[in-house]
Structure formats: structure tokens, C-alpha cells
Write a sequence for this structure.
């Protein structure tokens, strides 16, 4: 018999991020995460396949949000502004997770296995964005380039937003993304 | 006593690419590669740390070429044209390796471990390009964005150049990179 635990996923995530930060990712076990959250290992495995999944379970939703954002973007936008609109939509969902994202960022940066997984996540997102652009009639190489450049913007903006250095501390992720899209346009300006 | 073998590295690389293509990367051993090349395993390990290294030994030279290309680029270029100049220089070195690159591309795409390693390689190159741009006085986020966007161009152009579909078959890598830089500018044009 399973007892329902209020917000078990959120408690497990918080406990995992605390332990990964305190002891390191490699040194933390699922049993310790469940214990810190006051839950059982069995409950942990109802929400996450393994301890890495705690850091990546949001990617599927992020991808769906971005793909839907591209499909729903107004007609007549340039490819990069289409991607920018989708990124802005995703940014709103992430905004309340800034402190969690900051902690996650530090943990991922410290562990080679997690850095690799993060690169795979970003490459998968770029491929999904390119497909979504093609469905809007954007041809290659424009679709691939806009998608890859868009993910570059997302990566750079996300790091600034979640970064510890206080740079951009007063700005929302959506604002930083808008600035980064403008910076990309300036960087790539013909001339 | 070691006998000198003419072009041992090149023979080992050819043998490895043949075997990876015929049997798959995972199913090929170092002993088989050495045997196909008419060399010993001991000779193999004088050139490569392991069988994966055969597919990635060029990354260090590619990185040095790109970083030097950014340092040597004419003054007054925009960040993206600075990166474009460096990519064009690297493209000349790769041009004679088109058939090898095509084979390598197919092998990497077929093996998750190699796809991950390729993503790490591209991320490492992007970080090196961004550093080289900062040394020229380009500030962030422009340096990071130009480097990441430049690597997106390289990835898309390289795939087209090395691709099997015949698209761009009559063009050099340098030409395809120049076209892709132009496409990026068009994709990212303000408007």
C-alpha cells in the first residue's frame, strides 16, 4: 500500500540538490536523498529513474514548450525571432526556479558525466527546434543555423541568469534572452 | 627494437575506418585494426591511446588552427567574420580528407558514445574560440555568442560537406562555410 506524500517530487529534488552540493554528485546515494526528504527509496523511484534523472527530468517539458512556442509564433517573424519567441515562453516557466537552477548549474559543471548529459540535452533541443522550424516552412541551412544559434543564446543567457557572479542579477531570464538575441544579431551583422 | 613503418598512422586510420564501417565501432578490436594495417598492436599504441582516439586525434590540431586563425585575423572584422576567417583556414586543412571525413561522420553518427565525444569536442572548440576572441578584445556575451554561432556554422557546413546526400558535392568546405556564414547573417538579421 502506498501512502500519498504531498509534493514528493519537489521534496526529493530539493534534498538531492542539497546533497549534491554538500557532498558531490558521485558521493550521494538514492537512499540518502530519500532519507533527507523524509521519504522511502521506493517513493524516489516512483518519480525518478535514477539520481541523474533528478537533474534532467525537466528537459522533456522544456522541449515540448519550445517546440509549441515555435509552432505558435506569429507569422512573418525571422527564423531567429521565431526561436527567440519560443525561448521567451520557456523562460517564464523557468523564472521561479532560479535558485534551483543556480544550484543545478554548479553541480552539473562540477561533474564530467553531467556535463556530457547536458551537452546531449542541448543538442537534442537544437534538433527539435530545427524540426519545428522546418514545419513552419523554414528551409535548411537556415532552420539548423537558427536552431543552433538559438540554443547558443539560451545557453549563454541561462548561464548568466543562473550564474553566481551576480551579473544580470536584477534581470529575468526572458530579459536576458532578449538582450542575448539582440547581441547575436549584432555579432552576426553583415559588415 | 622497433622497425620504422612508413605512414603507420595513416595506414592504421584507414584500416580502422574500414573496419568500423564494415563491422561497427563496438565490434572492432585494436588487434584487428593493426592486423588489417599489416602492423602490430604495439605500433598502434605508439600512435593512438585507444580505438576511439583514431577518430579524434585531429581535434587538438583543429583547435590550434582555429585559435591561431582568430589571433591572425585582420583587424576590424566583426566577431562572426573573425570566426569565419578562422574556420576558412581550418577548412583548407580538412579539404583533402573529405572521403575520410565522410566515413568518420557515418561511424560517429551510428554510435552513442562517439556522438557524445563529438559534442564534447565541439563544446571544447567553442570555449577555445570564445577565449581567443576575448584575447582580441571582444567582450561577453558577444565572444561566447560568436564562438557558439561559429561552431554551429562549422557543424552544419561540415555535415553538408561530408554528407552522403551529394548536396554541395561540388563545393569545397571553405565555400560551404562562407555560404553558411552568409546564411547565419541572414537568419540573424534584425527585422
Amino acid at each position: 500500500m502506498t501512502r500519498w506524500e504531498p509534493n514528493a517530487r519537489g521534496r526529493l529534488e530539493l534534498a538531492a540538490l542539497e546533497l549534491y552540493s554538500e557532498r558531490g554528485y558521485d558521493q550521494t546515494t538514492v537512499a540518502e536523498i530519500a532519507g533527507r526528504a523524509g521519504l522511502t527509496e521506493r517513493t524516489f523511484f516512483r518519480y525518478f529513474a535514477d539520481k541523474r534523472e533528478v537533474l534532467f527530468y525537466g528537459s522533456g517539458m522544456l522541449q515540448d514548450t519550445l517546440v509549441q512556442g515555435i509552432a505558435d509564433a506569429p507569422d512573418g517573424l525571422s527564423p531567429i525571432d521565431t526561436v527567440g519567441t519560443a525561448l521567451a515562453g520557456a523562460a517564464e516557466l523557468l523564472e521561479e526556479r532560479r535558485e534551483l537552477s543556480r544550484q543545478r548549474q554548479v553541480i552539473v559543471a562540477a561533474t564530467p558525466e553531467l556535463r556530457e548529459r547536458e551537452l546531449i540535452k542541448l543538442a537534442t533541443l537544437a534538433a527539435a527546434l530545427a524540426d519545428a522550424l522546418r514545419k513552419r516552412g523554414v528551409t535548411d541551412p537556415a532552420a539548423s543555423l537558427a536552431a543552433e544559434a538559438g540554443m547558443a543564446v539560451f545557453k549563454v543567457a541561462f548561464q548568466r541568469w543562473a550564474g553566481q557572479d551576480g551579473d544580470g542579477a536584477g534581470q529575468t531570464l526572458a530579459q536576458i534572452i532578449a538582450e542575448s538575441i539582440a547581441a547575436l544579431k549584432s555579432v552576426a551583422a553583415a559588415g
Summary: The interface with chain B takes residues 78-81, 115-116, 119-120, 123, 140-142, 144-146, 148-149, 152-153, 155-157, 160, 179-180, 183-191 of chain A (CB under 8 Å). Chain A has a mean pLDDT of 91. The radius of gyration of chain A is 18 Å. Residues 68 and 86 of chain A are 8 Å apart (CA to CA).
